[in-house]
């Protein structure tokens, strides 16, 4: 069976990497989760799929809470962007342990650890079947890593953005609160807006809609799910025009 998609952008949240235990019951990087993700990504790359990754930073730092922290929003956002680079490095190490060739590109220059983000270079890496990890979000405060994911996906002409989450798709209501909630298999961008369903923040969502980039929301923590999505099986929810 041939993969449905030739080039994907996988967006993972930083929080997904978090584990329990460690010091004070908090462990920002759970290495068994990272190893699991690395295996899943390796498997789809082995099918010939070109994989780009964007990872959040919420397990380490989120910049948006000026009132609570007293740290200016833009300043905190830069701290958040640095957190995504730490996560990117952790995933890079996990992937390389599995024998997958990777490149980390950062939207904020830090030449000792990452290439600067250069679109054409990223595409070249993908063509050579290296997994490209985009760190430091968009490089701008007041954005999110979802927006970075949408932006990079469009720039590299990915066929789809895969948003790996803890829930297995988009529901009519919050399934954790409403037992009667049902899952959409497919939904249009317009319906999401009309029904006020939060798939991504508005900036990220609008970028996808305006550029006809389909989004699949799926549960990344279920082993084998990433492969199923890539093979075109009905997993999660597909958002399209
Ligand atoms: N961030 C930013 N610009 C970007 C991407 C991220 O300022 O382009 C900052 C922002 O403060 C955000 C933090 O980095 O809160 C971590 O990213 P995010 O909250 O999107 O991570 P996730 O929720 O996916 O773990």
UniProtKB/TrEMBL annotation:
Its EC number is 2.7.4.22. PANTHER family: URIDYLATE KINASE, URIDYLATE KINASE PUMPKIN, CHLOROPLASTIC. Pathway: Pyrimidine metabolism; CTP biosynthesis via de novo pathway; UDP from UMP (UMPK route): step 1/1. Catalyzes the reversible phosphorylation of UMP to UDP. This is Uridylate kinase. Inhibited by UTP. HAMAP family: PyrH_B. Homohexamer. The gene is pyrH. It comes from Flavihumibacter solisilvae.
């Amino acid at each position: 069976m041939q993969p449905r998609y030739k080039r994907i952008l996988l967006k993972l949240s930083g929080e997904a990497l978090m584990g329990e235990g460690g010091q004070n019951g908090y462990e920002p990087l759970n290495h068994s989760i990272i190893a699991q993700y690395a295996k899943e990504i390796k498997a789809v790359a082995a099918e010939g799929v070109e994989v780009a990754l964007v990872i959040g930073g919420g397990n380490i730092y989120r910049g948006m809470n000026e009132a609570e922290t007293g740290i200016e929003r833009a300043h905190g956002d830069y701290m958040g962007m640095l957190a995504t680079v730490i996560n990117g490095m952790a995933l890079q190490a996990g992937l390389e342990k599995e024998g997958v060739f990777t490149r980390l590109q950062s939207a904020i220059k830090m030449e000792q650890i990452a290439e600067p983000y250069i679109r054409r270079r990223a595409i070249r890496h993908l063509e050579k079947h290296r997994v490209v990890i985009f760190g430091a979000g968009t490089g701008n405060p007041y954005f999110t890593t979802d927006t970075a994911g949408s932006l990079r996906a469009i720039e590299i002409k990915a066929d789809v953005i895969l948003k790996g989450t803890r829930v297995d798709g988009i529901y009519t209501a919050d399934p954790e609160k409403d037992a009667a909630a049902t899952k959409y298999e497919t939904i249009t961008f317009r319906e999401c807006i009309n029904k006020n369903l939060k798939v991504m923040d508005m900036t990220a969502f609008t970028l996808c809609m305006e550029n006809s980039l389909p989004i699949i929301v799926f549960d990344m923590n279920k082993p084998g799910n990433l492969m199923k999505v890539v093979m075109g099986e009905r997993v999660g929810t597909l958002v399209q025009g």
